[in-house]
Specification:
alpha/beta, 6-stranded parallel sheet, binds 5'-deoxyadenosine, binds iron/sulfur cluster
């Protein structure tokens, strides 16, 4: 039996791309292997968003080299953002690699596998398939309840620190009828929740002949029977329209939860990042959201130590975090990425300054998260039952705000929605009791 193993680095987009590569291979009779050691083919689906992600890939690649020495028949494929960034240069660093394919070349995976089997020389595809967004690609999803669905590819924003537009190309939206068809198919398999994926979902629909936009797409997905919950990532604050706020408020299946990356609280830094909003415009949008959708769960991304960030700039980020009170944040030290405009800025900061600022935002957020979490104690939350919790004897599920809750209630079927009263709050999860 032909077998494969995929190691995924990076974001949800990559996780989902891996599900698709698995879907393509399984459709052709390949079986998944749980570890690389047992597989005939190993795919590394790589991430290049920060230098650390790149280092992780190269150390995994080194490990595969040892495996390949022991088993010369092993096929090694490199997919994802580093594949796109490096192309055939990967072969000069690692001549034992057999295949290199970019994120928009996934649909051709099996053709590449066949070509390599016929003639075992390295196969490289990083041109990007211009019709990629019109292709219906199978996906082998590991979770039976919650599914990712890509609604668009690429990004046109060119934030000055970000490598994504260079690697995932220009924005392309998938047609709404393909998306509705995919989500209908998911409900037939028992899926209850979909997360719509795109680098910038708020600009969904740009360039589509059918003329659609993101709030309208949300309405179409909301109307599909069998789907109980709809989520989406990521929203660019500049494109967060009133119509989208109204959609989150009015569409019953769209969860009251939003990831809205702010990156910095300083207008000077935001301008240097090419974010195209000011911190007060951002705060204004958050205010609108909170008043339209009371209790909405908000998360964000923050970059500390962007070139030229002064102590005052950084304090503005701290002030914004204190003012907005996010449910959680993802904070990163600025990392230099190839080709990006920020590389040429002056005022690159030493590692120890970035490290200290990262510690400070994380410590502030720990307090805010705990404070916000404790406010949920005593409230009743709708929980989608997902299965047994890691702590024995309990079930686990998530609230509409995407918070993990563990509770007794063993007769609640997996996939059902249950009202659970929150009894205690920790930093990362909650305990609760089902309401009778
Ligand atoms: N350095 C640090 N963080 C980055 N991000 C993107 N590019 C960089 C970089 N060069 C962060 C941003 C983005 C998230 C996905 O990753 O915060 O929102
Ligand atoms: Fe990168 Fe900005 Fe596009 Fe997000 S919106 S992928 S941070 S360029």
């Amino acid at each position: 039996m032909k077998s494969f193993h995929i190691v995924t680095f990076g974001c949800q987009m990559n996780e989902h791309d891996s599900e698709r590569m698995a879907g393509i291979l399984e459709e052709r009779g390949y079986a998944p292997a749980s570890v690389a050691e047992n597989a005939g083919m190993v795919i590394l689906n790589t991430c290049s968003i920060r230098e650390k992600a790149e280092q992780k890939f190269y150390s995994e690649l080194g490990r595969l080299r040892t495996l390949k020495k022991a088993n010369p028949k092993l096929t090694i494929a490199v997919a994802g953002c580093i594949a796109q960034q490096e192309g055939k240069k990967i072969l000069s660093k690692a001549p034992y690699v057999d295949m290199v394919l970019g994120p928009s070349d996934i649909a051709g995976l099996f053709t590449m596998v066949e070509a390599h089997r016929r003639r075992p020389v390295p196969v490289i595809e990083t041109e990007g398939d211009p019709e990629y967004h019109h292709k219906l690609i199978p996906a082998s999803r590991t979770d039976g309840l919650k599914a990712w669905v890509s609604i668009m590819y690429g990004c046109d924003n060119f934030c000055t620190y970000c490598v994504v537009p260079y690697l995932r190309g220009r924005e392309r939206s998938r047609p709404p009828r393909d998306l509705v068809q995919e989500v209908r198919g998911l409900t037939e398999k028992g899926f209850k929740e979909v997360t719509l994926l795109g680098q910038n979902v708020n600009s969904y629909g740009k360039g589509l002949k059918e003329g659609s936009d993101f709030p309208r797409l949300l309405g179409m997905i909301n109307d599909i029977p069998g789907i109980e919950r709809v989520r989406f990532v990521t929203s660019h604050p500049r494109d967060l329209s009133d119509a989208l706020i109204e959609a989150v408020r009015d569409l019953p299946k769209v969860c009251e939860s939003l990831h809205l990356p702010v990156q910095s609280g300083s207008d000077r830094v935001l301008a240097a990042m090419n974010r195209r909003y000011t911190s007060s415009e951002y705060r204004e949008k958050v205010k609108k959201l909170k008043s339209a959708v009371p209790g909405i769960a908000l998360t964000t991304d923050v970059i500390v130590g962007f070139p030229g960030e002064t102590e005052d700039d950084f304090e503005m980020t701290m002030g914004l975090l204190g003012g907005v009170e996010y449910d959680n944040i993802f904070a990163f030290k600025y990392s230099q990425r190839p080709n990006t405009a920020a590389l040429t800025l002056t005022g690159h900061l030493p590692e120890n300054v970035k490290e200290a600022r990262l510690e400070r935002v994380l410590s502030l957020q720990r307090d805010i998260t705990l404070k916000k979490n404790s406010r949920l104690v005593g409230t009743v939350q709708e929980v989608l039952v997902e299965g047994q919790s890691k702590k024995g004897g309990k079930l686990t599920g998530r609230t509409r705000g995407n918070k993990a809750v563990n509770f007794h209630g063993n007769d609640a079927p997996i996939g059902s929605l249950l009202s659970v009263r929150i009894t205690s709050a920790g930093p990362n999860s909650f305990s609760g009791e089902p309401c009778v």
